[in-house]
Amino acid sequence: MTSQTYTFRIQRNMPGQVGTVQSHWQEYKVEAEPNTTILTLLETIKGGQDGTLTFRQSCRSAICGSCAINIGGRTRLACKTHVGTVAKDGVVEISPQKNQPVLRDLAIDIRPFFARVHGIKPYLQEGPERAGKVTSTAYDQVNHVTQCIMCGCCYSECTMAEVNPKFIGPAALAKAFRFVSDPREGLKTERLQALANPNGIWSCTRCTLCVDVCPKEVAPMEAIVKLRTRGLNKGVNTSAGAKHALAFHEDIKQTGQLNEFTLMMRTLGIVGSLMETGMALHLAKKGKIPSPFPHSVTGVDELRRMYESLERSPIDVETKAKEAVPE
Amino acid sequence: MTLEFAYYPGCAAKQIQREADWAARAVCQELGIGLLAMPRASCCGAVSLRETKPAFALAVAARILSEAEAMGKDLVTICNTCLQTLTHANYRLSNEPELLEKINAVLAESGVRPYGGTIKVRHLLWVVTDLVDSRTLKAKITHPLKGLRVAAFLGCHSIRPEEIFNHASNTSEGPHLERLIQLMGGVPVDYVGKDRCCGFHVMLSDKHEVHTMAAKNCLSAKDAGAQVMITPCTLCDMIMGSVQPIAEKTVQRTINLPEMNFAQLLGLTMGISKERLGISRLHIDPVPVLSSIGLA
After folding, report:
1. For testing the chain B interface, which of A85, A236, A302, A322 should be mutated: the one with the most B CBs within 10 Å?
2. Interior/surface letters A151-180, b for 16+ CB within 10 angstroms, e for the rest
């Protein structure tokens, strides 16, 4: 492999007045082979060109989670990212994680992130739902989320966190799933109730960014989806998001089609829907009023039979995590 | 080669976003792509059914895929969420033989033809850009965009998760939607937010956040010089287009970025009438921008 010159375009951030940072972009040239890691090159710059450049790092092995930064438009671990895979015309753009307060250059204040993780009570609790026996497959569900190294890549890319800083966020929710799924946990239902509160599991947009940016294949969104299912199975169904989700299988059983006309009513209730009349009128202006009586699809009785069959004899279709093998 | 597909427009295109269905049909007629009706196909269940009734969700998807299989055609949709839901189910049913067997047992017991796992799920956009010969397509584009600056809003559910799409939705030549813009004679605008979320799936539960999201992405495109935005998804259309004027009020900023389904803009470049493409149903009137290049 031949080396070439890369331009690192790095966002420099300096603390200014209380709570503000002054930002500017600075360019550095480095000689590297395409399979050199971004972290190695940041060290090269810091050691040889500019000792003031600030970034976090520790293990160099994608296990400590310290070096998550925004590289080429995506939050990634600097130690796991090869420069050749992210450079565009020889230029690599680097900035700190998003959705987090910036301290200096590429270092962010990780405390708000960990406050969210601590908020979900990341420890086992005594209680009535604690299993007496633990089977050999009991940890199939826990495994994929225990890979999490708390690097913050998912939170940085989270589209809901971007507009709602109160959102618990993918990493903390994945951690919550780990405890809901642990057979030894005593307060599973209580956890599910708390997680269904505003800014919790039902605020996830399902954009799937956290799944694709996670460097450890935790798939936080899949954990959120499973938390929603677990909650509904325990009767935690009063939030708007839960009611909205519940409308679907009823409609599919009835006509096979979604009834968009009554969907809002069933999600928000009468009062909520009245508050939304502005939206309905807005759509009506363009003739966009769905039919209150959608046609039934051919063979809707088949759908009902499928539904009833699965209610009588449920099938477990949850994806199982691969056995956790140390890297 | 005749291109014929089992056509699955999705619930939104049958109801609120009907214009996307009209445009898809009109464009396919021009290109000689056959869209065959699926009378038995139900709602795919979207993101919700997988949460409330995960096994039923797979059975519902298998029943839809089985209908396409019985027709001997791959399935084509114009809704990103239908695309992701059916692709996800198809991915699992094709890769987990035991699961397919269990789901097929439920289908058989309910009088439904079992699914053999042989169907591909495609987006109409991929068909147009990958399967239609580019010379044929270019010959049909009689009213090119003449350098119109177009923002491609890709929509989460046709690009993620990478595992199930296996790069089908994103090639080294860039996103399909941007390639289509180039084929139509337009210039794709690069902007932060093009691969982010419209917020549709939390539209009712997190209204304020969705408005902020929509406004942010539209403003980002507009600030980057976009004159019009297109999406490959009826749900993105609803938020970025229909909800945009309401989002403007929430964030107290004027945006006024005309937004439409990719098939509508493609139809216009093929000389198909505005009426057939349902342009008057758009909440932000694109006619002033389009008339500047002689398209409307």
Report:
1. A302
2. bbbbbbbbbbbbbbeebbbbbbbbbbbbbb
Q: Which domains does chain B have, with CATH numbers?
A: 3-123 (1.20.1050.140), 141-283 (3.40.50.11810)
Q: Report chain B residues whose CB lies below 8 A from the CB of A267.
A: 204-205
Bridge partners of residue B151, in order along the sequence: B189, B229
State percent of chain B over pLDDT 70. Answer: 98
Distance from CA of B203 to the nearest CA of A (A): 9
What global pTM score does this model have? 0.95
Contact status of B296 with chain A (Cβ, < 8 Å): no
- Those of residues 189-218 in B touching chain A at CB distance below 8 A are 192, 196-197, 199, 201-202, 204-206, 209, 212-213, 216
Which tokens in the block code for residue B17?
Answer: 């976003």
Contact B283 A297 (CB under 8 A): no
Q: What is the pLDDT of residue B276?
A: 97
**A4-108 and A111-233 have identical folds:** no
Of A174, A2, A151, whose CA–CA distance to A81 is shortest? A151
Domain boundaries, chain A: 4-108, 111-233, 240-312
B220 CA to chain A: closest CA distance, Å? Answer: 14
Radius of gyration for the alpha carbons in chain A, expressed in angstroms and rounded: 24
B11 → chain A, closest CA residue: A258
The DSSP bridge pattern shows strands A4-15 and A91-95 to be parallel
pLDDT at A294: 78
Cβ within 8 Å, pair B110-A245 = no
The reply to whether residue B56 touches residue A307, judged by beta carbons under 8 angstroms, is: yes
CB within 8 Å: B50 and A225: yes
Residue B169 confidence (pLDDT) above 60: no
The closest of A116, A89, A93 to A38, measured between CA atoms, is A93
Protein fold of A4-108: Ubiquitin-like (UB roll) (3.10.20)
The string of pLDDT tens digits covering residues B116-158 is 999 999 999 999 999 999 999 999 999 999 999 999 999 999 9
The CATH number assigned to the domain with range A111-233 reads 1.10.1060.10
Q: Are B5 and B246 in contact (CB under 8 A)?
A: no
The pLDDT of residue A326 is 53
- Tell me the residues of chain B between 39 and 58 that have a Cβ less than 8 Å away from chain A: 39-43, 45-56, 58
Q: What is the CA radius of gyration of chain B?
A: 19
Q: Which of A229, A244, A246 sits opposite B205 (nearest CB)?
A: A244
Q: What is the pLDDT of residues A176-203, one digit of tens each?
A: 999 999 999 999 999 999 999 999 999 9
- The residues of chain A scoring below 70 in pLDDT are 1, 322-327
